[in-house]
Structure prediction request, 239 residues.
Amino acid sequence: MTVSVNGVEVPVEPDGSSELAAARELLRQRAIAVNLLAETASEEAKIDAAIEALLESEVTTPSPTEEECRRYYDAHPREFQSGDLVHARHILFQVTPQVRIPEIRARAEDTLNQLLREPDRFDALARELSNCPSGQQGGNLGQIGRGDTVPEFEQAVFKFGASGILRDLIKTRYGFHIVAVDRSIPGKKLPFETVSGQIAERLRANVEEKAVRQYVSVLAGQATLLGVDLDSTQTPLVQ
Prediction:
């Protein structure tokens, strides 16, 4: 099926998502309209940079209040403990400027599905596929404490009840991770004042993701789309 945005045909990779491809084209066209990108620009890196600048200028992400942060803190006591340790393994599918994210995501999801069926293959697939040096040790990261990894990874491995191969990919600045938590050693609860900044950043990131989806929905409501549904709406959801 052909996918087009405002008359521009959008190529979709065999393992890619038509929704993601159409959303990216919407953002590219908007970046051109507000003079953040030349209409003739074709380099992926320049387009990505322009889209990032567009989202920074047009998507407002409100900061969470102290009350919201404290409510999250009270509802997730196990996430804020000092001395917490986990023993974990991972397989990294690295994202670089030269790769197409939908293809990498699809490959990672396929591998995760294989491992959920055959968990004993983790070591072999880590050695074969992981873009992290730990792959040569079957993906073994050893003992991890809080603060040892990026926040997105930490949130996943220290989540209450996290055990075995996690059923969802973990997205970080480095790429997509398949993660296995082999052992968790709990510590002591940290005071709210110590972790309030961490909680605020986590909540802000969640709000930002929703705001971007709403922004794309607004653009879709003002566009002519063919072959894809982005839940378009004519109501301005992002001010």
